[in-house]
Specification:
- The complex is a heterodimer of chains A (about 250) and B (about 425).
- Chain A is an alpha/beta fold and about 250 residues long.
- Chain A folds into 2 domains: about 5-155, Rossmann fold (3-Layer(aba) Sandwich), CATH 3.40.50.700; about 165-240, no CATH class.
- In chain A, about 35% of the residues lie in helices and about 10% in strands.
- Chain A has a 5-stranded parallel beta sheet with strand order 2-1-3-4-5, sandwiched between helices.
- Chain A is globular.
- Chain A starts with a strand and ends in a 7-residue tail after the last helix.
- In chain A, about 50% of the residues are buried.
- The model of chain A has no long low-confidence stretch (mean pLDDT about 90).
- Chain B is α+β, with helices and mostly antiparallel strands and about 425 residues long.
- Chain B has one domain: Orthogonal Bundle (Cytochrome-c3 Hydrogenase, chain B), CATH 1.10.645.10.
- Chain B has helices spanning about 40-45, 50-55, 65-80, 85-115, 120-130, 130-150, 170-195, 245, 270-275, 285-290, 305-330, 380-395, 400-415, 420-425; strands at about 1-5, 15-25, 25-35, 160, 165, 210-215, 225-230, 235-240, 250, 255-260, 345-355, 355-365, 370-375.
- Chain B has a 3-stranded antiparallel beta sheet, covered by helices on one side.
- In chain B, helix 9 crosses helix 11.
- The radius of gyration of chain B is 21 Å and the shape is globular.
- The model of chain B is unreliable at about 425-430 (pLDDT under 50).
- At the A-B interface, helix 1, helix 2, helix 5 and helix 8 of A face helix 1, helix 2, helix 4, helix 5 and helix 6 of B.
Chain lengths: ~250, ~425
């Protein structure tokens, strides 16, 4: 079987998900034995910008018309499109408080010139094109990327936890920051996959992986309210990283 | 009028290009174009509480996320008058060293090296010559391990907070890290061997102004609050609180990165600037390495930034080892962060990201909410200097051969190790 043709792209973001791929130091050379990376501008200067791709992986949010054009072009040449990271899946910090008028902020910052910069309302990938798979995380866990490649090579959809960070946190037998210390920890409403990295270090979860879809939000909210955090404050926290998933 | 366009600069972080306009043999204009979308994080962070700021602003850039995160914490701590513990200072310096090792290894081996050896990528290079790529990946992994052990994650660290750390790293992990660092010392020699063996890059000479953090101690990345600007024997010092006089930024139409100059002249920041500004000249092994690399300071060739990164890579590994020895000697304590009492006021902090000076400045209200935020990044500071050096390289290319110019400009751009996501930063209108 010939190796699948893969493209790895970044729209507007911090390049952290592409860097997470390059951080698979021990596996990179094995990886190129299994997949044919045809276009990866961050790592290679001979990318083929036209060829059809079996898999495109795209990180970042859409915040310019140029991003939107590039994303549509990538979609058109790719059989499977994977959104990589919280910005691509949920809008991320670029889309934070996205009801604020970007044009106005640009003008405030750059003066008159701000009117000339390419800008559009910040969006997640699925708001522009069809997305086949999502790998969330800010940044993604590199193990999730490797597992996704393995699944896709086998023709399987990549699967990720659908339970909240709390589940992983309890498995690690941490003291609960929310219940025992009254800290605003977003663990009950944030999707797992990080092995409760922050609460393990006594740091409250900031919700960087986006909302959990399988949770019982009513019981989580009741817990927050019991601890004295009002609904608006919780939503505001979640909207920092996942503005597209959490209505204002 | 003819035009040379590099549409999308590859093997750099972010989205940028280069445009050169020639009028006959004369260089009419040179531009470093930045297409990166503006995320407007500085105005968006207004109204957020002090503990939300570093996790949001570290997202400016993944490769420099330790620098952004720790500079943010330093600025907030300055605003609130918080003094962190000596252990916190050491752990933070260690994170900076880890980030710099990772970033320099990534840049030198995966992004810059393929140019010198005529390959499109490190992966293509590895198919023919695996040794240098494996050397780079080993060092890159080591830098990431330091960041993971101390910061909790290689990208966007979570463990460093206002006032200190969530949890100090366990002794066993520091001991394991120490043995990895000891094993990496010989790799440092291989880095110098490799970089000394690369073909000379002698196509851009220019008088250059350098600016870097003036550190009062060995910690050249994190300690101190003054910038020194150096040109041919002249020195000027700028205090953190007056950083605006250093940057004098202006918006330009072809880029969402604002351009900076000092007294009307572009200046260069990064490894080469740090070596030039730091009054402690390399000694012993480093002095020998510098000689082998044929690096003379102050340099007049921006390509020498690659050699400076190689020297720093060796030094960072050794310094990281010293810090761990000290932490183990002193005994690592399970400290809690210093309690935070927010107060109204402004705090600015200057540090050195792997690619140069980084400044964060915030104003807080008395509840500890941001009312104004300003971030000045190394790639934005470098943008005007890059354009100057592009111009010199075109002028110094005698036959104006388009392919040669294009190749040289890309190599110069990469030598600056630009982080274009970082460069797009926004400044409050005053």
């Amino acid at each position: 079987m010939s190796k699948p043709k893969v493209g790895i792209f970044g729209l507007t973001g911090c390049a952290g998900d592409q860097l997470a791929i390059l951080n698979c130091e021990d596996r990179l050379l094995d990886l190129v034995a299994l997949i044919d990376i045809r276009d990866f501008p961050m790592a290679s200067s001979d990318g083929n910008q036209e060829c059809a791709l079996d898999i495109a992986m795209v990180e970042g949010a859409v915040v310019t018309m140029r991003d939107a054009r590039r994303l549509r072009a990538i979609r058109q040449r790719s059989a499977t499109l994977v959104a990589l990271g919280t910005c691509a899946v949920w809008g991320g910090v670029a889309a934070m408080d996205r009801d604020l008028d970007r044009a106005k902020l640009l003008e405030e910052v750059y003066g008159e010139l701000g009117k000339e910069y390419d800008s559009c309302p910040a969006r997640a990938l699925h708001e522009i094109v069809k997305v086949d798979h999502n790998i969330t995380g800010c940044p993604i866990e590199k193990e999730h990327f490797l597992a996704a490649v393995a699944s896709l090579l086998n023709g399987d959809p990549p699967l990720y936890p659908a339970y909240p960070v709390c589940t992983e946190c309890r498995m690690r037998e941490n003291n609960c920051l929310l219940i025992e210390r009254g800290e605003l920890c977003c663990g009950p409403i944030t999707v797992a996959g990080c092995d409760a990295r922050c609460p393990q270090l006594r740091i409250p979860c900031v919700g960087c992986r986006g909302p959990v879809t399988d949770a019982n939000p009513a019981s989580a909210l009741a817990l927050f309210e019991e601890k004295g955090f009002d609904r608006e404050r919780i939503w505001a926290r979640l909207r920092t990283f996942a503005p597209v998933g959490v209505a204002s | 009028m003819s035009t040379i366009v590099i549409e999308h600069l590859a093997r750099v972080e972010g989205h940028g290009g280069i445009t050169v306009e020639l009028d006959g043999d004369a260089v009419a204009s040179v531009r470093f174009d930045v297409f990166e979308g503006a995320r407007l994080l500085e105005p968006l962070v207004r109204g957020k509480r002090f503990d939300e700021v570093a996790p949001i602003l570290s997202r400016i850039c993944s490769i420099c996320s330790v620098a952004h995160s720790l500079t943010s914490l330093k600025a907030t701590e300055n605003a609130f008058g918080i003094r962190v513990s000596p252990q916190t200072d050491l752990l933070r310096e260690l994170m900076f060293r880890g980030e710099s090792i990772e970033s320099h290894a990534l840049h030198l081996f995966l992004l810059a090296l393929p140019d010198y050896l005529n390959y499109p990528s490190a992966l293509a290079l590895a198919a023919d010559k695996p040794a240098p790529v494996l050397l780079g990946l080993r060092l890159k992994r080591l830098g990431n391990r330091i960041q993971e052990t101390i910061g909790g994650r290689a990208i966007h660290p979570v463990n460093a907070v206002v006032g200190g750390f969530g949890k100090a790293p366990p002794v066993e992990e520091l001991i394991a890290l120490r043995s990895s660092l000891m094993q990496a010392v010989p790799d440092g020699d291989s880095v110098i061997d490799l970089v000394a063996s690369l073909p000379a890059t002698d196509f851009c000479h220019s008088d250059t102004l350098y600016a870097a953090l003036r550190s009062p101690n060995l910690d050249t990345y994190y300690a101190g609050d003054e910038v020194m600007v150096v040109s041919n024997g002249n020195r000027a010092i700028v205090n953190a609180a007056d950083y605006r006089s250093l940057t004098a930024e202006k918006a330009v139409p072809h880029s969402t990165a604002k351009h900076s100059s000092f007294r009307g002249r572009p200046f260069m920041v990064g490894s080469l600037a740090r070596l030039t500004v730091n009054p402690r000249r390399p000694m012993g092994k480093l002095a020998v390495a510098m000689k082998r690399l044929k690096l003379l300071l102050p340099a007049d060739n921006p390509m020498d930034n690659n050699k400076a990164q190689a020297l720093e890579l060796v030094n960072d590994v050794e310094r990281a080892l010293e810090i761990i020895e000290q932490l183990l000697r002193d005994g690592i304590k399970d400290e809690r962060p210093v309690p935070v009492l927010p107060r109204a006021g402004t705090g600015a902090a200057i540090t050195e990201a792997p690619r140069g000076l980084l400044i964060h400045s915030y104003t807080y209200d008395d509840e500890g909410r941001v009312t104004a935020a300003d971030v000045v990044t190394p790639t934005a500071l470098n943008a005007a200097s890059m354009e100057l050096h592009f111009r010199r390289a075109v002028e110094q290319c005698a036959d104006r051969d388009e392919a040669a110019i294009s190749r040289r400009l890309q190599m110069i751009a990469r030598a600056y190790d630009p982080c274009i996501s970082c460069a797009v930063h926004l400044v409050r209108k005053r």
